[in-house]
From TrEMBL:
PANTHER family documented for this protein: ABC TRANSPORTER, ATP-BINDING PROTEIN (PTHR43335)
Pfam family, one: ABC_tran
Keywords, alphabetical: ATP-binding, Nucleotide-binding, Transport
Listed name of the protein: ABC transporter ATP-binding protein
Organism: Streptomyces orinoci (Streptoverticillium orinoci)
């Protein structure tokens, strides 16, 4: 087992009663200090994995360690060190945001009532809900409810935050707020494990990523490594597309496609890009843009699965 791992699983598997294989032999390593994106389309097994990690359901087989302790066996020791936001916070709509936090804090037998007011004040401040603390939770927007859920998870210092689709259902402004908060928490040294079906979200906030599809892990590593594992394409912007295609083909560029005033092709493995550019210009091609396209996580995902990233549902 990896001593720097905050979460580690080996062969973790869940088959639901009814026979559905939701998670299939998962080997996951979440390094301490990472913002770890757990990416996969709806139904790929993310929530099931998180529920096993948090000791809410038993795995069918395999093992999971969280903060170095076996789950679900050590659930009583582990959960106080973990802040979790799973499937939306359980809030009382008739209580104010502040009083919801009082309730959460009072339900924690290890929380000292004498420091409660200060801790609640700090948590509200942290998520930007101080001004709205007196409002009833049912009057909160979805984004405010998520932030209140995060405040509940932050009532005490945590080594690990586990967030299941924290921006699901939020408007762009709400998403930005949650992402900014995740970044801040990570800067303070908290390891954050968050699931998402949104590639660009993972790209924006995460240092690491694991990609799930149909219960299986396709890959894991740093976001940078994953993007680097896929070669970008050469892209040329020009009104003279036919001539550009001819010259590029002559110079060994494969898989050429033309869309509007843009020609793309496989980046040549050898040879000088500057030379290629010069050849185009020599042939009278008016080159407006020339270069290697940036590879997105989405390109990497398509390369991994051979298909587009399906975000249905
Ligand atoms: N309690 C359950 N009983 C039987 N099957 C289940 C149960 N919960 C989930 N599943 C099935 O297991 C598979 C994985 O579901 P899971 O919720 O873990 O995926 P997910 O990636 O979290 O997707 P979503 O983002 O939609 O929650 C799905 O096919 C789902 O239908």
């Amino acid at each position: 087992m990896d001593a720097t791992a905050v979460i580690e699983t080996a062969g973790l598997t869940k088959r639901y009663r009814g026979g559905q294989l939701a998670v299939d032999g998962l080997d996951l390593v979440v390094p301490r200090g990472s913002v770890f994106g757990f990416l996969g389309p709806n139904g790929s097994g993310k929530t099931t994995t998180i529920r096993m990690l948090m000791g809410l359901i038993e795995p069918t087989s395999g093992v999971a360690r969280v903060l170095g302790e076996p789950m679900p066996r050590a659930v009583g020791r582990v959960l106080p060190r973990v802040g979790a936001l799973i499937e939306g916070p359980a809030l009382y709509g008739f209580l104010s945001g502040h009083d919801n936090l009082v309730r959460f804090d009072a339900a924690d037998p290890t929380a000292d009532p004498r420091t409660r007011a200060a801790r609640i004040g700090a948590a509200l401040e942290r998520v930007g809900l101080t001004a709205a603390a007196g409002k009833k939770a049912r009057a909160y927007s979805l984004g405010m409810k998520q932030r209140l859920g995060l405040a509940a998870a932050l009532l005490r210092p945590r080594e690990l935050l586990v967030l299941d689709e924290p921006t699901n259902g939020l408007d762009p402004q709400g998403m930005r707020e949650i992402r900014a908060l995740v970044r801040e928490l990570a800067e303070d040294g908290t390891t954050v494990f968050l699931s998402s079906h949104l590639l660009d979200e993972i790209e924006q906030v995460c240092t690491h990523v694991a990609v799930m599809a149909q219960g299986r892990l396709l890959t894991q590593g740093t976001v940078r490594e994953l993007a680097a594992s896929v070669t970008g394409r050469l892209a040329v912007g020009t009104p003279d597309t036919a001539e550009a295609v001819r010259v590029l083909k002559e110079h060994g560029v494969n898989d050429l496609t033309v869309r509007g005033e843009r020609v793309t092709g496989e980046l040549p493995g050898t040879g000088d890009l500057a030379e290629l550019n010069a050849a185009l210009v020599r042939a009278g091609v008016r080159v407006r843009a020339f270069g290697a396209e940036r590879v997105s996580l989405e390109d990497a995902f398509v390369a991994l699965t051979g298909e587009g990233f399906d975000v249905a549902g």
